[in-house]
UniProtKB/TrEMBL annotation:
BP GO terms, sorted: amino acid biosynthetic process; aromatic amino acid family biosynthetic process; chorismate biosynthetic process; quinate catabolic process
HAMAP family: AroQ
Gene for this chain: aroQ
Catalytic activity line of the entry: 3-dehydroquinate = 3-dehydroshikimate + H2O
Chain sites annotated for binding substrate: 73, 79, 86, 100-101, 110
Organism: Luteibaculum oceani
Active site positions: 24 (proton acceptor), 99 (proton donor)
Known partners and oligomeric status: Homododecamer.
UniProt site (Transition state stabilizer): 19
Annotated pathway: Metabolic intermediate biosynthesis; chorismate biosynthesis; chorismate from D-erythrose 4-phosphate and phosphoenolpyruvate: step 3/7
UniProt protein name: 3-dehydroquinate dehydratase
UniProt xrefs under PROSITE patterns: DEHYDROQUINASE_II
């Protein structure tokens, strides 16, 4: 039986590949997800992206008790959303917070995360590799 991971991405990540490539790189979100699926075939990887905070909360609630592990890049909502924080806290899924850019080397407001203390860990600043690093951790925790 395949293990399952949910990956939830927030606002503007649908623009990866064209959005500020000097910060976020040239790879698309679809490219990242496809590469993860190819690199971790032993996992079923559910993926959801939305620019809407409410839709992200709904998806966390929907998937959060069905999956042992999740990866979340809440993007700008990382710094503002008590609702997403509360949703993560309310479910049994162990989330890992990821960011493509090094948020600590950017604007002051990006240095505070409302999510990091309710996530199992944070990976930031390694571009698309941040997702792969999260999957590597998940693999190590789930006997893969």
């Amino acid at each position: 039986m395949k293990k399952a991971v949910c990956i939830i991405n927030g606002p503007n990540l649908n623009l990866l590949g064209t959005r500020e490539p000097d910060i976020y790189g040239n790879v698309t979100l679809e490219g990242i997800i496809n590469s993860l699926q190819q690199s971790y075939p032993e996992y079923t990887i559910a993926h959801f992206q939305s620019n809407s905070e409410g839709e992200l909360v709904n998806k966390i609630q929907e998937l959060g008790n069905e999956y042992e592990f999740g990866i979340i890049n809440a993007a700008a909502y990382t710094h503002t959303s008590v609702a997403i924080r509360d949703a993560i806290s309310a479910v049994s899924c162990n989330f890992i917070e990821v960011h493509l850019s090094n948020v600590f080397a950017r604007e002051e407001f990006r240095k505070e995360s409302l999510l990091s203390d309710v996530c199992q860990g944070v990976i930031t600043g390694f571009g698309a590799q941040s997702y792969f690093m999260a999957m590597q951790f998940i693999r190590s925790q789930s006997g893969g």
